[in-house]
Write a structure and sequence with these properties.
By secondary structure, the protein is mostly helical. Helices cover 75% and strands 1% of the residues.
Length: 302
């Protein structure tokens, strides 16, 4: 039996799409602000250029770039793209984790959590609403309130079918379609972050070295002048800021640690875990892949 993202509730799919959309909006706003700041510095580094009356073209372009930075910032603040991205991502991952725990008898939805008599379904609904209520208090917009997702579809037929299978099938499905899939996702994210880190690190080093060279030349009265040095400094600062926004360094360490934890848990689940220990093992695995755990590791990484 297979269990994929397509088998998760519609509420997950809506929040997942919202998180992706808001993440794109947030990163595009930050990138636009940094590019406009560099463009403004570039306009300031150019000669006065052609003029229309008392208005100098390059000076006007620089002023427009600074105005654009302010406009993008005001729009991003009003749209609350970054907070909504994080809230929707937390909601999506919470729903996904809870659905998996319900489908494979993870704690608290094992035999002691209601079995097959409907008690587990009621407990699932209670836990789901309790978790989403905490997110609503922080500003998360529940799509069910706006009629974007139908009420009462929080448990899918695929979740019930997997829950009704025997222990061996549930274990095999969980290890293959959840644990290994998630481990591979962290591995891909780590590799992508390493490539991005190398690219931006070398770019920042190059820009800084050029700025240093021109500054040294300027100290001896030669070189292209301070304007180009200032432009290179602005570009290097923008690169550092972008690298910090993307959090490549801390996420590499966090994702690597989680990947190692999942690999170890995969071995344990396939060899030593008993049926009685299964609910708590699933619960522990889901704790590893929670956004809160990732953020905690990223904040405390060296």
């Amino acid at each position: 039996m297979t269990f994929r993202n397509e088998d998760l509730p519609a509420l997950f799919h809506h929040t997942d799409r919202a998180a992706i959309s808001r993440q794109r909006e947030s990163t595009q706003a930050t990138r636009a602000q940094l590019m406009l700041l560099v463009a403004a510095a570039g306009a300031a580094a150019l000669p006065a250029g052609p003029a229309v009356g008392s208005l100098h073209l390059f000076g006007a372009l620089g002023a427009l770039a600074y105005a654009g930075v302010l406009a993008v910032g005001v729009r991003a603040s009003r749209r609350r793209a970054r907070p909504q991205w994080q809230l929707n991502r937390s909601a999506a991952e919470f729903i996904k984790s809870l659905a998996w725990r319900y489908a494979v008898h993870g704690a608290p939805f094992g035999a002691a959590g209601g079995g097959q008599d409907g008690g587990a379904a009621a407990l699932y609904g209670t836990r789901l609403e309790a978790g989403l209520d905490e997110l609503r208090k922080m500003g998360w917009q529940d799509p069910r309130a706006a009629g974007l997702v139908p009420e009462g579809a929080e448990i899918t037929g695929a979740m019930e079918r997997l829950r009704g299978r025997d222990y061996q099938v549930r274990r095999e499905t969980y290890v293959r379609d959840r644990l290994i899939e998630q481990r591979d996702w962290y591995r891909r994210k780590t590799e992508g972050s390493r490539r991005a880190t190398a690219l931006w690190s070398w770019t920042i080093v190059l820009l800084t070295c050029l700025a240093l060279l021109f500054a040294l030349l300027g100290a001896f009265g030669s070189g292209p002048g301070p304007r180009l040095t200032a432009l290179l400094s602005a570009a290097a600062a923008a690169g550092i800021a972008w690298n910090e926004v993307r959090r490549h360094h801390p996420l590499i360490e966090a994702h690597t640690l989680i990947e190692q934890d999942l690999a170890a848990m995969m071995v344990v689940m396939q060899t030593t875990i008993t049926q009685e220990q299964w609910p708590s093992a699933v619960y522990e695995t889901e704790r590893y892949v929670s956004p809160q755990h990732t953020d905690w590791l990223a904040r405390h990484s060296s």
